[in-house]
Design goal:
With 429 residues, the chain is an alpha/beta fold. It is 32% helix and 20% strand. The protein is globular and about 65 Å long. Bound molecules: guanosine-5'-diphosphate.
Length: 429
Amino acid sequence: MPATLIVGTQWGDEGKGKIVDLLAADADVVVRFHGGNNAGHTLVVNGEKTVLNLIPAGVLHPGRICMIGPGVVVDPEVLVGEIEALRKRGYLKDDRWLRLSERAHLIMPYHRAIDRARERLRGAGSIGTTGRGIGPAYEDKMARTGIRVGDLFDEVGFREALERSVREKNGYLEAILGEAPLSFDAIHDCYAVYRERLRPFVADAGEELRAALAAGRRVLLEGAQGVMLDVDHGTYPFVTSSSVVSGAAAGGAGLPPRAIGRIIGIAKAYTTRVGGGPFPTELTDALGDRLRADGDEYGATTGRPRRCGWFDAVVVRHAVALCGVDGLALTKLDVLTGVDPLRVCTGYELGGRRLDRPPATQRAWESLTPCYEELPGWRESLGGARSLADLPANARRYVERLAALVGAPIALVSIGAPRDETIRVGDVF
Ligand code: GDP
């Protein structure tokens, strides 16, 4: 059976964590394939909140294999912390339930130091990175100077690679960024501890994944961030440093593309974005504040307030086309209850011309104006709805209109953070 892939269709924070957790009930293996601990999912299960940054959101289902694939960059300090926190709460009882690719690149302390120093130096022009070293770790990967998980286990090779890197990075930190140098010994000793903590989980994850698929296991690929943050297709340079689109999932997980069968795009019923960068439908008024408060729109890991605005069908339509989305999971519809009328951006206007797709340049993003369509809102609580027919007529109309505008059928509608506050329309596997 081919794998099912989950991708975010906006600027991240679409509620992928809840959807992956929900679908993981029917999966055997859940895989992260890109990004690092800049992603943050908040899961609410039995009234208890769990924040995950690296481990796939399948971990709350005992017995699921959670894989961190070769395309991910891993901060071992964060991973060890996450494993310990989950263990304390009774999850991840068996080491075999977590697999860490030996090919995944390591985030090192100098990556974090460089990330933070650069963002500070950019001042008002900052691109809003989380300062966790993700971008600099991907730079080293592409420059072919990175250190991978598997390298930790070749102690002589690891020492040599680390010596080279610390020498080079300290030069950069001191001379260019005006920062204090880092201690080789401190990093070396720290990573020797992580080596032993992570040893039980390290595997040829791609090979294990292919074997699982061949054995008929059900695989869920968990995307992080969203298509508009994709390094090629997003609002460059206000993007993340990895590929988010479905086309990158196979490589990042270690699968042939044909192994991916179904692609589910997650979209929030309105739009949010963290940090700087284009956001045509942003609401900077009281309604934006209301969406932020009602939707609890604060970063899961950083606590940063998210910018909020109307649903942008241009963005989601782009993601649907680019990723080949088969079904849309619409989240947080409940947050729009009481907002009347509702507006949806159906296209942009730029220099007297109508655009149906996102533009490529920053100048175009800054000059365009969104074109809106108005739809009637609803005041009834969505609480008990378990099918589309249970929704108030205007909520149903809103959902159906969004699906038509973006060109994908609805697979699922989420009307609250808990697992059961979900309307399932079709099968996702
Ligand atoms: P992710 O990174 O895409 O998983 O998104 P986040 O976890 O950062 O943000 C999603 C937040 O919305 C989490 O706090 C979820 O518990 C919550 N959430 C998810 N789906 C719904 C929903 O349908 N309604 C409401 N009110 N909250 C939701």
